[in-house]
Design brief:
Elements lengths: L2 H15 L7 E7 L5 E8 L2 E2 L1 E6 L5 E8 L2 E2 L1 E6 L5 E8 L2 E2 L1 E6 L5 E8 L2 E5 L16
Antiparallel strand pairs: 1-2, 2-3, 2-4, 4-5, 5-6, 5-7, 7-8, 8-9, 8-10, 10-11, 11-12
C-alpha cells in the first residue's frame, strides 16, 4: 500500500470515528470514613469529562472543575478548609486563559492577573514578581 493510500485510509477511518456514538459517561464517587462525600468525578472514554467536585470532610466545598475530553476547561474554583476561597481560575483547552485570582487563608488577595496567549498580565504576586511598593515609576 502506498503512503498516499495509507493517508487516505487513515483520513476515512478518522472521519468515520467522528460519527461514532459517544462513550457513556461514568461518574466516580468516594467518601470519607464519616460517610461525607469526598469527591464526584465524571469520565467519558477513560478521560475526565464534565463536572469534578470535591468536599472537605466537614462537607464544605473543596473544589469545582470542569473538564472536556481530558482537559480542564472553563472555570476552576478551590477553597481552603476554613471556607475562604483559595483560587478562581479560567482555562481553555487545559491552559490558563482569562482572569485569575488567588487568596491567602485570611481572605486577602494574593494574586490578580490575566492570562492571554500564555502570558501573564497584572499582579501575579508569585515568586519572581515585585509588588507595586518596589516598582519604579517613570514620569
Amino acid at each position: 500500500m502506498s503512503v498516499r493510500s495509507m493517508m487516505s485510509a487513515i483520513a476515512l477511518v478518522s472521519g468515520l470515528a467522528s460519527f461514532a456514538p459517544q462513550a457513556p459517561r461514568v461518574v466516580v464517587e468516594a467518601r470519607y470514613p464519616n460517610g461525607q462525600l469526598w469527591y464526584r468525578r465524571s469520565y467519558r472514554g477513560g478521560r475526565e469529562d464534565g463536572l469534578h467536585t470535591g468536599w472537605w470532610a466537614d462537607g464544605r466545598v473543596h473544589f469545582v472543575y470542569h473538564y472536556r475530553d481530558g482537559l480542564i476547561e472553563g472555570e476552576a474554583h478551590e477553597w481552603y478548609p476554613n471556607g475562604i476561597q483559595y483560587r478562581d481560575f479560567h482555562y481553555r483547552a487545559g491552559h490558563e486563559e482569562g482572569s485569575e485570582r488567588m487568596w491567602y487563608t485570611d481572605g486577602t488577595l494574593r494574586a490578580n492577573y490575566v492570562m492571554r496567549d500564555g502570558r501573564r498580565f497584572g499582579l501575579p504576586g508569585t515568586k519572581g514578581c515585585t509588588g507595586l511598593d518596589s516598582a519604579v515609576v517613570i514620569p
